[in-house]
Structures are given as C-alpha cells and as structure tokens.
C-alpha cells in the first residue's frame, strides 16, 4: 500500500494540478475571509447600520467560529474536485490500464487514491486554517471582542471543519469512480454543490411556506452542503445538532467510497 500511495503522490506532484489547486485555495479563502469579516462587522456594530443593538442577540462564539473556518464552502468544493480528478485523470490520460495491470487488486488502487484524497483534503483545510485563524484573531481584536480561541465549541468547529474537507475529497473520488468521465464528473459535482443545493433550498423554503410545514425547510440541512455547515457550527443549525451533521456528511462520504470501489472492481477498465 505504501508503494501505491507514493505513486499517487508522485502523480499529483508531477502535474500542474497541485499549484492550480493552491492558487484556487488561496484566492477563494481570501475572498471568504473578507466576506465573513464584513458580515461579522455588521453583526457586532448594528448601530452603525441603523439597527437597534438591544433587539439583536449576537452570538460572539459563533462569529469567531465562522471567521476561523472561513473558506470552507469553496475549499470543500476544491477538495471534491481534487477527489474527482485523482481518479478520472487515469482515464483522461489513458493510464488506467497500466495502473491496474501494475496493481491487479483494484481495491488497493482505490484505497491508495482514497488515502491521498483525504491527505490533500486535510492539507487544503490546513491552508485555509492558517489563513483564517490569524485573520480572525486580528479582526476580533480590532473589535475588542474575545477571540474564543480557547473555547471548546470553537475548537470543535475548527476540527470538524478539517473532517469536512476530508469527507468532501472522498465524496469527489466516489463521483469520479461512478462516472469516470473527467469533464462530466466535474460538471455534475459542481452543479450539485453550487446550483443543486441552492435550488433545493429555495424550493423547500417555498414549500414550507406554502404548506406551513417548518420541517420541509430543514430538509436541506441533511444534504451534503447543509450537513457541512451544521457540523462546523458550534450550536448546530436549523435545530439540528452538530454531531448529526457530522454523521450525515460522513455517511455520504462512506457511501460514495463504497460505491466507487465496487464499481471499479466490476467495471471493464479498457
């Protein structure tokens, strides 16, 4: 297995994928930090925007957690894309046959790719954390607000944020194994995450309002992107506990990995 993992890491390092991914992570994280700082400033200074501070409840721990996990949305998207590419590159560059001839046990090949996908997902999470935490500390200090960096719920949110990146990378690998086509897999993954989630949320909100059924509006929290947000919120979201979001997202990741492995074992590679 060590040989397979080293081979997969070499494939990543020997292509332009790693530095393109790095540029994307840096750019999107910077944008997310600026956006979250603006939103946090509005929450912490409601008087400056014509709101009555006495009527607003500001959860400063949640603000801190949100700042420290800046970049999760686009970061997990990039982790998912990497998971897709690490599998579909074999078919795109027509190296799949050689890879599986060198290692006939396909489960071991998928396992090696899975481990590398998780490692890269964690590295992406590390980069976003290294950028977001100092920025968040500086912003909160400028607003004379406690940093909450020693708070257990905030630290938990940061840790679960790392888990979310790893799971999304696995989820992407599952999509790649299912579809094999690189272009189709990336399009399906991006549409599902960027467009599908939003459309479903809007549709469920409209249905919840029309039928006066609040539970319909909470269904979106059980989808991958919604579960990601729930698990990294100190108090959860939509009345759903953080651990429920974590288990839900983990379930999606495990399901994608299992399906991808089974399909790869049975499908004709040539």
Automatic annotation (TrEMBL):
Residue ranges of the TM segments: 16-38, 73-93, 114-140, 160-179, 186-211, 240-263
Presence of keyword DNA-binding: no
Pfam families: ABC2_membrane_4
Signal peptide interval: none
Keywords: Membrane, Transmembrane, Transmembrane helix
Keyword Membrane: yes
Database matches in PANTHER family: INTEGRAL MEMBRANE PROTEIN-RELATED (PTHR37305), MEMBRANE PROTEIN (PTHR37305:SF1)
Name of protein: ABC transporter permease
Protein source organism: Actinocatenispora thailandica
